[in-house]
Design brief:
This protein is of the alpha/beta class and 237 residues long. The chain folds into two domains: 129 residues, NAD(P)-binding Rossmann-like Domain (Rossmann fold); 100 residues, Dihydrodipicolinate Reductase, domain 2. 35% of the residues lie in helices and 24% in strands. The protein has seven helices and eleven strands. Strand 3, helix 2 and strand 4 form a beta-alpha-beta unit. Helix 1 packs across helix 6 and helix 2 packs parallel to helix 3. The structure holds nicotinamide-adenine-dinucleotide. The site of nicotinamide-adenine-dinucleotide (NAD) has 27 residues, from helix 1 and helix 2. The site of nicotinamide-adenine-dinucleotide has 27 residues, from helix 1 and helix 2.
Length: 237
């Protein structure tokens, strides 16, 4: 598989290592110092692009590759208010797009556990809350993973109607507390408390490798595919 890497920071470099170890080739690396070269990525030289940049650059990068009819696997967070624009462009161009707020297998199991637990906790009198901890260079808050967890909880538990990224005394609001601590790859806790006890589920990433492995698996899955896909399609959940 010939892969274009857009974004060559912590994730881009971790992904490059797994690609090369798996016998894939890198057709092009685009980073902040050669952004204009993204237009050189075409179906003739690249099977799929893996895009991990930043909230403010992700949308333009994704659109540029889809416009050139190159399928994209993106993991950038903080741009999802434009998701439907990308879906429309992907369908118009007849190419492929894969997005996950978190590519690790463990987190995707955790997403399902969170939905099940939210269902079970309905009407039992517990108050829920979330905590996410990431390294200090993370640009967006709350994390994309925390937003996916919050949406999964709210969709399955009638006690909460919306999330807020601050402490809240309103019982209908799900509070997400974001902490930034040096070199933490990603920790997410979902907690239910009552007067008598606390139930907490927690996912702690030990490194970026789990995210990078998932992104490479998604890229392998996307070769030759048309349409919009997610981890549910890849993992058959
Ligand atoms: N979905 C997941 O599983 C997952 C996991 C980890 C990180 N992330 C997200 O992925 C993104 C990247 O994370 P990171 O830790 O690698 O960040 P990073 O800051 O280490 O790397 C980002 C890289 O993108 C480059 N860049 C910025 N603008 C660009 C542009 N217009 N074109 C090309 N390159 C550009 C920067 O120079 C930098 O090298 C963030 O949004 C982060 O939240 C997602």
């Amino acid at each position: 598989m010939k892969v274009g890497l857009v974004g060559y920071g912590k994730m881009g470099q971790a992904i490059e290592k797994i690609l090369l170890d798996s016998g894939h080739t890198i057709s092009k690396i685009v980073n902040i110092d050669n952004t204009e070269e993204i237009g050189e990525i075409t179906p003739e030289n690249t099977d799929v692009v893996i895009e991990f940049t930043a909230p403010e650059s992700a949308l333009d990068n994704i659109k540029s590759c889809l416009t050139n009819k190159v399928p994209v696997v993106s993991g950038s967070t903080g741009w999802l208010e434009h998701y439907s624009e990308v879906v429309d462009l992907c369908n118009q161009q007849g190419t492929g797009f894969f997005y996950a707020s978190n590519y690790s297998l463990g987190v995707n199991i955790f997403f399902k556990l969170n939905e099940q637990l939210a269902k079970m906790m309905n009407g039992l009198g517990y108050d829920s809350s979330m905590l996410e901890i990431h390294h200090t260079q993370k640009l967006d808050a709350p994390s994309g993973t925390a937003i996916t967890l919050a949406e999964g909880l709210i969709a399955n538990n009638e006690a909460k109607s919306n999330w807020v990224n601050k402490p809240s005394d309103n019982p209908k609001e799900l509070e997400i507390i974001s902490e930034r601590v040096d070199s933490v790859p990603g920790t997410h806790d979902v907690t239910y408390s009552s007067e008598v006890d606390t139930i907490k589920i927690s996912h702690v990433a030990h490194s970026r490798e789990g995210f990078a492995q998932g992104a490479v698996r998604a890229a392998e899955f996307m070769v030759g595919k048309v349409g919009v896909y997610s981890m549910d399609d890849l993992l058959n959940f």
